[in-house]
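Hello, quick one for you while I still have it in my head. Could you read through the record and tell me how the C-alpha coordinates relate to the sequence? No rush at all, and the record is pasted right below.
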Amino acid sequence: MSVQEKGEQFSSKWGVILASLGMAIGAGNLWRFPRLAGQYGGTFIILWFLFLFIWSIPILLSEFSIGKKFKHGVISSFAQAAGEKYTWMGFFITLCTLGITFYYSVVTAWGLRYVGLSTSLLNDEEALEGLNQDFLEVYWQGISTGSYLTVGIHIGVVIFAVFMLYKGIQQGLEKVNKILIPSLLFLMLLVAAVALSTDNGPKGLEYMFHIDTSLFFNSKVWIEAVTQSAWSTGAGWGLMLTIASYSRDKEDVTFNILVSGIGNNLASLIAGVAILPSVFAIASSDAQAISYLQSGNTALTFTIIPLLFAKIPYGEVLGVVFFVAFTMAAFSSLISMVELCIRTFTDLKFNRTKASIITGGLCIVFGLPSAMSLNFFSNQDWVWGLGLLISGLFINFAVQRNGVGKFKEEYIDKDSSIIIPTVFYKIAMYLNIGIGVFLIWWWMSQGYSANPWFKDGVWNFFDVYSNATIVTQWGAVILIGILLNKWLYKKFVK
Protein backbone atom coordinates (compact mmCIF):
# COMPACT_ATOMS: atom_id res chain seq x y z
CA MET A 1 0.00 0.00 0.00
CA SER A 2 1.39 3.38 -0.95
CA VAL A 3 1.89 6.35 1.33
CA GLN A 4 -0.84 8.17 -0.50
CA GLU A 5 -3.34 5.39 0.11
CA LYS A 6 -2.58 5.54 3.81
CA GLY A 7 -3.09 9.31 3.87
CA GLU A 8 0.47 9.88 5.09
CA GLN A 9 1.55 13.23 3.65
CA PHE A 10 2.69 16.75 4.49
CA SER A 11 -0.06 19.15 5.51
CA SER A 12 1.02 22.01 3.24
CA LYS A 13 3.50 23.27 0.65
CA TRP A 14 5.60 24.83 3.41
CA GLY A 15 5.80 21.53 5.21
CA VAL A 16 7.53 20.08 2.15
CA ILE A 17 9.76 23.14 1.71
CA LEU A 18 10.87 23.14 5.36
CA ALA A 19 11.54 19.41 5.20
CA SER A 20 13.60 19.97 2.03
CA LEU A 21 15.55 22.79 3.68
CA GLY A 22 16.01 20.71 6.82
CA MET A 23 17.39 17.88 4.72
CA ALA A 24 19.73 20.20 2.80
CA ILE A 25 20.91 22.58 5.53
CA GLY A 26 23.04 20.54 7.86
CA ALA A 27 26.49 20.09 9.32
CA GLY A 28 27.88 20.21 5.80
CA ASN A 29 27.05 23.91 5.75
CA LEU A 30 28.65 24.80 9.09
CA TRP A 31 31.44 22.22 9.15
CA ARG A 32 32.37 21.05 5.64
CA PHE A 33 31.75 24.14 3.48
CA PRO A 34 33.81 26.63 5.57
CA ARG A 35 36.75 24.20 5.54
CA LEU A 36 36.69 23.93 1.74
CA ALA A 37 36.10 27.65 1.20
CA GLY A 38 39.05 28.26 3.52
CA GLN A 39 41.28 26.01 1.43
CA TYR A 40 40.30 27.19 -2.03
CA GLY A 41 38.55 30.57 -1.61
CA GLY A 42 36.47 32.16 -4.35
CA THR A 43 37.60 29.64 -6.99
CA PHE A 44 35.87 26.87 -5.09
CA ILE A 45 32.76 29.00 -4.49
CA ILE A 46 32.39 29.73 -8.23
CA LEU A 47 32.64 26.04 -9.14
CA TRP A 48 30.35 25.09 -6.27
CA PHE A 49 27.65 27.49 -7.48
CA LEU A 50 28.13 26.24 -11.05
CA PHE A 51 27.51 22.67 -9.94
CA LEU A 52 24.41 23.74 -8.01
CA PHE A 53 22.72 24.57 -11.32
CA ILE A 54 24.43 22.05 -13.59
CA TRP A 55 24.50 19.00 -11.29
CA SER A 56 22.43 19.36 -8.12
CA ILE A 57 19.24 21.13 -9.19
CA PRO A 58 18.59 18.94 -12.27
CA ILE A 59 19.15 15.78 -10.21
CA LEU A 60 17.00 17.07 -7.35
CA LEU A 61 14.22 17.93 -9.82
CA SER A 62 14.43 14.37 -11.13
CA GLU A 63 14.46 12.82 -7.65
CA PHE A 64 11.56 14.86 -6.35
CA SER A 65 9.38 14.15 -9.37
CA ILE A 66 10.05 10.40 -9.18
CA GLY A 67 9.11 10.30 -5.49
CA LYS A 68 6.03 12.44 -6.10
CA LYS A 69 4.81 10.19 -8.91
CA PHE A 70 5.32 6.77 -7.35
CA LYS A 71 4.76 7.59 -3.63
CA HIS A 72 7.22 5.01 -2.32
CA GLY A 73 10.76 4.93 -0.98
CA VAL A 74 13.95 4.95 -3.03
CA ILE A 75 14.25 1.31 -4.11
CA SER A 76 10.59 0.93 -5.09
CA SER A 77 10.22 4.30 -6.81
CA PHE A 78 13.55 4.00 -8.64
CA ALA A 79 12.70 0.52 -9.91
CA GLN A 80 9.37 1.76 -11.27
CA ALA A 81 11.03 4.74 -12.95
CA ALA A 82 14.07 2.93 -14.42
CA GLY A 83 12.74 -0.59 -14.90
CA GLU A 84 12.91 -3.92 -13.10
CA LYS A 85 16.44 -4.81 -14.29
CA TYR A 86 17.85 -1.71 -12.61
CA THR A 87 16.39 -2.10 -9.14
CA TRP A 88 19.95 -2.64 -7.88
CA MET A 89 20.75 0.99 -8.67
CA GLY A 90 18.08 2.12 -6.21
CA PHE A 91 19.63 -0.28 -3.72
CA PHE A 92 23.03 1.41 -4.19
CA ILE A 93 21.53 4.89 -3.70
CA THR A 94 19.89 3.71 -0.47
CA LEU A 95 23.06 2.07 0.88
CA CYS A 96 25.20 5.05 -0.11
CA THR A 97 22.97 7.37 1.91
CA LEU A 98 22.88 4.94 4.81
CA GLY A 99 26.68 4.90 4.76
CA ILE A 100 26.53 8.64 5.46
CA THR A 101 23.66 8.31 7.94
CA PHE A 102 25.65 5.93 10.10
CA TYR A 103 28.34 8.55 10.78
CA TYR A 104 26.13 11.63 10.65
CA SER A 105 24.74 10.98 14.10
CA VAL A 106 28.36 11.19 15.28
CA VAL A 107 28.64 14.71 13.84
CA THR A 108 25.51 15.60 15.81
CA ALA A 109 27.15 14.11 18.92
CA TRP A 110 30.23 16.27 18.35
CA GLY A 111 27.98 19.33 18.24
CA LEU A 112 26.43 18.40 21.57
CA ARG A 113 29.87 17.87 23.12
CA TYR A 114 30.78 21.42 22.14
CA VAL A 115 27.49 22.74 23.48
CA GLY A 116 28.59 21.15 26.75
CA LEU A 117 32.06 22.71 26.56
CA SER A 118 30.66 26.16 25.74
CA THR A 119 28.13 25.92 28.56
CA SER A 120 30.86 24.98 31.03
CA LEU A 121 32.66 28.23 30.18
CA LEU A 122 29.65 30.43 30.96
CA ASN A 123 30.45 30.87 34.64
CA ASP A 124 34.12 29.97 34.64
CA GLU A 125 36.06 33.13 33.88
CA GLU A 126 39.44 31.54 34.57
CA ALA A 127 38.80 28.68 32.13
CA LEU A 128 37.54 31.12 29.50
CA GLU A 129 40.64 33.28 29.78
CA GLY A 130 42.89 30.20 29.59
CA LEU A 131 41.19 28.80 26.50
CA ASN A 132 43.72 28.31 23.69
CA GLN A 133 44.18 26.34 20.50
CA ASP A 134 46.32 23.65 22.14
CA PHE A 135 43.54 22.92 24.62
CA LEU A 136 40.92 22.78 21.85
CA GLU A 137 43.08 20.48 19.71
CA VAL A 138 43.41 18.09 22.63
CA TYR A 139 39.69 18.35 23.39
CA TRP A 140 38.84 17.65 19.74
CA GLN A 141 41.08 14.58 19.68
CA GLY A 142 39.49 13.40 22.89
CA ILE A 143 35.91 13.54 21.67
CA SER A 144 36.58 12.21 18.15
CA THR A 145 38.75 9.20 18.95
CA GLY A 146 37.49 6.56 21.31
CA SER A 147 35.37 8.67 23.66
CA TYR A 148 32.72 6.62 25.40
CA LEU A 149 30.74 9.79 26.11
CA THR A 150 30.62 10.52 22.36
CA VAL A 151 29.46 6.95 21.78
CA GLY A 152 26.74 7.38 24.39
CA ILE A 153 25.55 10.64 22.85
CA HIS A 154 25.57 9.05 19.38
CA ILE A 155 23.24 6.35 20.70
CA GLY A 156 21.02 8.94 22.37
CA VAL A 157 20.83 11.06 19.20
CA VAL A 158 19.70 8.08 17.14
CA ILE A 159 17.06 7.11 19.69
CA PHE A 160 15.75 10.67 19.82
CA ALA A 161 15.62 10.92 16.01
CA VAL A 162 13.67 7.67 15.77
CA PHE A 163 11.33 8.79 18.56
CA MET A 164 10.61 12.03 16.68
CA LEU A 165 9.76 10.14 13.50
CA TYR A 166 7.92 6.99 14.47
CA LYS A 167 4.53 8.74 14.73
CA GLY A 168 4.68 9.81 11.10
CA ILE A 169 5.55 12.73 8.84
CA GLN A 170 3.14 15.42 10.10
CA GLN A 171 3.71 14.63 13.77
CA GLY A 172 7.47 14.14 13.35
CA LEU A 173 9.44 15.52 10.43
CA GLU A 174 7.13 18.44 9.64
CA LYS A 175 6.75 19.69 13.22
CA VAL A 176 10.47 19.38 13.98
CA ASN A 177 11.51 21.40 10.93
CA LYS A 178 8.98 24.16 11.63
CA ILE A 179 11.00 24.87 14.76
CA LEU A 180 14.52 23.92 13.65
CA ILE A 181 14.90 25.75 10.34
CA PRO A 182 13.78 29.31 11.27
CA SER A 183 15.71 29.09 14.55
CA LEU A 184 18.79 27.80 12.79
CA LEU A 185 18.85 30.56 10.18
CA PHE A 186 18.42 33.24 12.84
CA LEU A 187 21.28 31.86 14.93
CA MET A 188 23.61 31.61 11.92
CA LEU A 189 22.94 35.22 10.94
CA LEU A 190 23.64 36.30 14.50
CA VAL A 191 27.01 34.55 14.58
CA ALA A 192 27.97 35.93 11.14
CA ALA A 193 27.19 39.47 12.30
CA VAL A 194 29.40 39.01 15.37
CA ALA A 195 32.28 37.59 13.31
CA LEU A 196 32.25 40.51 10.86
CA SER A 197 32.19 43.04 13.69
CA THR A 198 35.53 41.83 15.08
CA ASP A 199 38.94 43.32 14.25
CA ASN A 200 40.33 41.82 11.04
CA GLY A 201 37.02 40.01 10.47
CA PRO A 202 36.45 41.74 7.09
CA LYS A 203 39.82 40.40 5.91
CA GLY A 204 38.39 36.92 6.22
CA LEU A 205 35.52 37.92 3.97
CA GLU A 206 37.98 39.29 1.38
CA TYR A 207 40.01 36.08 1.56
CA MET A 208 36.90 33.92 1.24
CA PHE A 209 35.94 35.45 -2.10
CA HIS A 210 39.47 35.85 -3.52
CA ILE A 211 39.82 34.00 -6.85
CA ASP A 212 43.02 32.08 -7.61
CA THR A 213 42.72 31.18 -11.31
CA SER A 214 45.43 28.49 -11.06
CA LEU A 215 43.05 26.43 -8.91
CA PHE A 216 40.72 25.99 -11.88
CA PHE A 217 43.32 23.48 -13.15
CA ASN A 218 43.38 21.51 -9.90
CA SER A 219 41.23 18.36 -10.10
CA LYS A 220 40.77 18.30 -6.35
CA VAL A 221 39.00 21.67 -6.37
CA TRP A 222 36.54 20.47 -9.02
CA ILE A 223 35.77 17.21 -7.27
CA GLU A 224 35.41 18.96 -3.91
CA ALA A 225 33.03 21.49 -5.49
CA VAL A 226 30.73 18.92 -7.08
CA THR A 227 30.77 16.53 -4.11
CA GLN A 228 30.12 19.40 -1.69
CA SER A 229 27.18 20.50 -3.83
CA ALA A 230 25.82 16.96 -3.93
CA TRP A 231 26.68 16.34 -0.26
CA SER A 232 25.09 19.55 0.99
CA THR A 233 22.01 19.84 -1.25
CA GLY A 234 21.25 16.14 -0.99
CA ALA A 235 21.42 15.56 -4.76
CA GLY A 236 21.64 11.84 -5.40
CA TRP A 237 20.97 10.86 -1.80
CA GLY A 238 17.40 9.73 -2.38
CA LEU A 239 16.35 12.01 0.49
CA MET A 240 14.44 14.38 -1.77
CA LEU A 241 12.76 11.38 -3.37
CA THR A 242 11.74 10.15 0.08
CA ILE A 243 10.38 13.56 1.10
CA ALA A 244 8.45 13.79 -2.18
CA SER A 245 6.85 10.40 -1.54
CA TYR A 246 4.85 12.16 1.20
CA SER A 247 3.96 15.18 -0.95
CA ARG A 248 0.49 16.14 -2.10
CA ASP A 249 -0.67 15.25 -5.64
CA LYS A 250 -0.34 18.83 -6.94
CA GLU A 251 2.96 19.65 -5.24
CA ASP A 252 5.05 22.25 -7.12
CA VAL A 253 8.22 20.39 -8.09
CA THR A 254 10.37 23.19 -9.50
CA PHE A 255 9.54 25.82 -6.88
CA ASN A 256 10.36 23.42 -4.03
CA ILE A 257 13.71 22.44 -5.53
CA LEU A 258 14.80 26.00 -6.34
CA VAL A 259 13.99 27.16 -2.79
CA SER A 260 15.79 24.17 -1.29
CA GLY A 261 18.89 24.36 -3.49
CA ILE A 262 19.41 28.13 -3.42
CA GLY A 263 18.46 28.31 0.28
CA ASN A 264 21.06 25.66 1.07
CA ASN A 265 23.82 27.57 -0.72
CA LEU A 266 22.90 30.81 0.99
CA ALA A 267 23.04 29.05 4.36
CA SER A 268 26.51 27.76 3.49
CA LEU A 269 27.70 31.25 2.58
CA ILE A 270 26.37 32.60 5.89
CA ALA A 271 28.33 29.87 7.69
CA GLY A 272 31.46 30.76 5.74
CA VAL A 273 30.99 34.42 6.62
CA ALA A 274 30.76 33.39 10.27
CA ILE A 275 33.80 31.14 10.39
CA LEU A 276 36.45 32.45 7.98
CA PRO A 277 36.48 35.98 9.42
CA SER A 278 36.77 34.32 12.82
CA VAL A 279 40.10 32.80 11.82
CA PHE A 280 41.48 36.22 10.89
CA ALA A 281 40.06 37.72 14.07
CA ILE A 282 42.05 35.43 16.37
CA ALA A 283 45.22 34.85 14.30
CA SER A 284 48.37 36.75 15.22
CA SER A 285 48.88 37.63 11.54
CA ASP A 286 47.18 37.32 8.17
CA ALA A 287 49.82 34.78 7.13
CA GLN A 288 49.01 32.58 10.12
CA ALA A 289 45.27 32.75 9.35
CA ILE A 290 45.81 31.78 5.71
CA SER A 291 48.18 28.96 6.66
CA TYR A 292 45.64 27.52 9.08
CA LEU A 293 42.78 27.76 6.56
CA GLN A 294 44.76 26.15 3.77
CA SER A 295 45.71 23.23 5.97
CA GLY A 296 42.24 21.79 5.38
CA ASN A 297 41.85 21.03 9.08
CA THR A 298 38.75 18.87 9.56
CA ALA A 299 38.28 20.43 12.98
CA LEU A 300 38.20 24.04 11.72
CA THR A 301 34.75 24.75 13.16
CA PHE A 302 35.59 23.06 16.44
CA THR A 303 38.95 24.72 17.09
CA ILE A 304 38.32 28.27 15.89
CA ILE A 305 34.82 29.29 16.95
CA PRO A 306 35.41 28.77 20.71
CA LEU A 307 38.55 30.93 20.50
CA LEU A 308 36.68 33.69 18.69
CA PHE A 309 33.99 33.86 21.34
CA ALA A 310 36.55 33.80 24.13
CA LYS A 311 37.87 37.14 22.85
CA ILE A 312 34.68 39.21 22.65
CA PRO A 313 32.20 40.53 25.27
CA TYR A 314 29.49 37.97 26.04
CA GLY A 315 31.25 35.63 23.63
CA GLU A 316 30.73 32.65 25.90
CA VAL A 317 26.96 33.03 25.38
CA LEU A 318 27.39 33.26 21.60
CA GLY A 319 29.57 30.15 21.75
CA VAL A 320 26.65 28.21 23.18
CA VAL A 321 24.37 29.75 20.54
CA PHE A 322 26.65 28.71 17.66
CA PHE A 323 27.02 25.10 18.74
CA VAL A 324 23.32 24.80 19.46
CA ALA A 325 22.79 25.99 15.85
CA PHE A 326 25.38 23.48 14.60
CA THR A 327 23.68 20.64 16.46
CA MET A 328 20.26 21.68 15.17
CA ALA A 329 21.61 21.77 11.60
CA ALA A 330 23.12 18.31 11.91
CA PHE A 331 19.99 16.89 13.49
CA SER A 332 17.65 18.40 10.88
CA SER A 333 19.56 16.53 8.16
CA LEU A 334 19.91 13.36 10.22
CA ILE A 335 16.17 12.93 10.69
CA SER A 336 15.67 13.05 6.91
CA MET A 337 18.27 10.31 6.51
CA VAL A 338 16.67 8.23 9.24
CA GLU A 339 13.30 8.71 7.52
CA LEU A 340 14.76 7.28 4.30
CA CYS A 341 15.65 4.10 6.17
CA ILE A 342 12.26 3.91 7.89
CA ARG A 343 10.52 4.43 4.52
CA THR A 344 12.57 1.55 3.07
CA PHE A 345 11.30 -0.83 5.74
CA THR A 346 7.69 0.35 5.49
CA ASP A 347 7.92 -0.45 1.77
CA LEU A 348 8.73 -3.98 2.93
CA LYS A 349 5.33 -3.98 4.70
CA PHE A 350 6.72 -3.42 8.21
CA ASN A 351 4.50 -1.18 10.32
CA ARG A 352 6.05 2.19 11.14
CA THR A 353 6.87 1.35 14.75
CA LYS A 354 8.75 -1.82 13.84
CA ALA A 355 10.50 -0.05 10.93
CA SER A 356 11.59 2.70 13.31
CA ILE A 357 13.01 0.24 15.84
CA ILE A 358 14.96 -1.65 13.15
CA THR A 359 16.28 1.62 11.74
CA GLY A 360 17.40 2.80 15.16
CA GLY A 361 19.24 -0.45 15.81
CA LEU A 362 21.06 -0.31 12.47
CA CYS A 363 22.09 3.33 12.94
CA ILE A 364 23.40 2.69 16.44
CA VAL A 365 25.41 -0.43 15.56
CA PHE A 366 26.88 0.73 12.26
CA GLY A 367 27.60 4.20 13.64
CA LEU A 368 29.75 2.90 16.48
CA PRO A 369 33.00 2.55 14.47
CA SER A 370 32.80 6.20 13.34
CA ALA A 371 32.09 7.27 16.92
CA MET A 372 35.19 5.42 18.12
CA SER A 373 37.65 6.19 15.31
CA LEU A 374 38.21 9.43 13.39
CA ASN A 375 40.04 7.45 10.69
CA PHE A 376 37.02 5.23 10.15
CA PHE A 377 34.78 8.29 10.12
CA SER A 378 37.01 9.99 7.52
CA ASN A 379 37.05 6.85 5.40
CA GLN A 380 33.27 6.64 5.31
CA ASP A 381 32.99 10.34 4.50
CA TRP A 382 35.51 9.82 1.68
CA VAL A 383 33.91 6.69 0.20
CA TRP A 384 30.24 7.63 0.38
CA GLY A 385 30.71 11.35 -0.21
CA LEU A 386 32.29 10.47 -3.56
CA GLY A 387 29.67 7.73 -3.94
CA LEU A 388 27.06 10.46 -4.32
CA LEU A 389 28.44 10.98 -7.84
CA ILE A 390 27.53 7.37 -8.63
CA SER A 391 24.08 7.86 -7.10
CA GLY A 392 23.59 11.01 -9.15
CA LEU A 393 24.54 9.13 -12.32
CA PHE A 394 21.98 6.46 -11.47
CA ILE A 395 19.23 9.06 -11.07
CA ASN A 396 20.33 10.48 -14.42
CA PHE A 397 20.11 7.00 -15.92
CA ALA A 398 16.50 6.63 -14.77
CA VAL A 399 15.67 9.90 -16.51
CA GLN A 400 17.44 8.82 -19.70
CA ARG A 401 15.45 5.57 -19.72
CA ASN A 402 12.25 7.61 -19.97
CA GLY A 403 13.63 10.12 -22.48
CA VAL A 404 14.88 13.40 -21.01
CA GLY A 405 12.36 15.68 -22.72
CA LYS A 406 9.45 13.32 -22.06
CA PHE A 407 10.49 12.87 -18.42
CA LYS A 408 10.61 16.62 -17.87
CA GLU A 409 7.19 17.13 -19.45
CA GLU A 410 5.43 14.28 -17.65
CA TYR A 411 7.24 14.23 -14.29
CA ILE A 412 8.52 17.76 -13.60
CA ASP A 413 6.45 20.31 -15.52
CA LYS A 414 3.01 18.86 -14.83
CA ASP A 415 2.39 20.74 -11.55
CA SER A 416 5.23 23.29 -11.61
CA SER A 417 4.52 27.03 -11.46
CA ILE A 418 8.04 27.71 -12.78
CA ILE A 419 9.02 25.96 -16.00
CA ILE A 420 12.76 25.58 -16.48
CA PRO A 421 13.68 25.63 -20.20
CA THR A 422 13.69 22.10 -21.56
CA VAL A 423 16.92 22.76 -23.43
CA PHE A 424 18.68 23.63 -20.16
CA TYR A 425 17.45 20.46 -18.46
CA LYS A 426 18.45 18.33 -21.43
CA ILE A 427 21.92 19.86 -21.66
CA ALA A 428 22.46 19.49 -17.91
CA MET A 429 21.37 15.84 -17.82
CA TYR A 430 23.50 14.86 -20.80
CA LEU A 431 26.44 16.94 -19.59
CA ASN A 432 26.22 15.39 -16.13
CA ILE A 433 26.96 11.94 -17.52
CA GLY A 434 30.31 13.15 -18.77
CA ILE A 435 30.93 15.28 -15.67
CA GLY A 436 30.25 12.42 -13.26
CA VAL A 437 32.32 9.82 -15.13
CA PHE A 438 35.20 12.20 -15.81
CA LEU A 439 35.43 13.52 -12.26
CA ILE A 440 35.42 10.04 -10.74
CA TRP A 441 38.16 8.94 -13.13
CA TRP A 442 40.12 12.18 -12.66
CA TRP A 443 39.93 11.99 -8.88
CA MET A 444 40.97 8.35 -8.64
CA SER A 445 43.82 8.79 -11.15
CA GLN A 446 45.47 11.48 -9.03
CA GLY A 447 46.59 9.09 -6.29
CA TYR A 448 45.61 10.99 -3.14
CA SER A 449 46.78 8.04 -1.06
CA ALA A 450 50.44 7.10 -0.78
CA ASN A 451 49.40 3.62 -1.89
CA PRO A 452 46.14 4.04 -3.82
CA TRP A 453 45.78 0.40 -4.87
CA PHE A 454 48.36 -1.90 -3.28
CA LYS A 455 50.58 -1.72 -0.21
CA ASP A 456 53.40 -4.25 0.06
CA GLY A 457 51.70 -6.27 -2.68
CA VAL A 458 48.38 -6.43 -0.78
CA TRP A 459 45.13 -4.78 -1.88
CA ASN A 460 45.14 -1.57 0.18
CA PHE A 461 41.60 -1.72 1.53
CA PHE A 462 42.47 -0.33 4.97
CA ASP A 463 44.04 2.95 3.88
CA VAL A 464 41.70 5.81 4.78
CA TYR A 465 41.89 7.54 1.39
CA SER A 466 42.94 4.80 -1.05
CA ASN A 467 41.22 3.94 -4.31
CA ALA A 468 41.19 0.35 -3.12
CA THR A 469 38.88 1.14 -0.22
CA ILE A 470 36.52 3.05 -2.55
CA VAL A 471 36.32 0.29 -5.15
CA THR A 472 35.93 -2.46 -2.54
CA GLN A 473 33.04 -0.81 -0.72
CA TRP A 474 31.23 0.40 -3.83
CA GLY A 475 31.81 -2.95 -5.53
CA ALA A 476 30.43 -4.92 -2.59
CA VAL A 477 27.19 -2.90 -2.53
CA ILE A 478 26.75 -3.09 -6.31
CA LEU A 479 27.45 -6.84 -6.39
CA ILE A 480 24.97 -7.54 -3.59
CA GLY A 481 22.38 -5.37 -5.33
CA ILE A 482 22.80 -7.16 -8.66
CA LEU A 483 22.64 -10.61 -7.03
CA LEU A 484 19.48 -9.63 -5.14
CA ASN A 485 17.93 -7.65 -8.00
CA LYS A 486 14.98 -9.95 -8.66
CA TRP A 487 14.28 -10.39 -4.96
CA LEU A 488 14.45 -6.63 -4.39
CA TYR A 489 12.00 -5.95 -7.21
CA LYS A 490 9.62 -8.62 -5.96
CA LYS A 491 9.72 -7.33 -2.38
CA PHE A 492 9.62 -3.59 -3.07
CA VAL A 493 7.47 -3.32 -6.19
CA LYS A 494 5.28 -6.37 -6.82
Q: What stands out?
A: The chain has a mean pLDDT of 85.
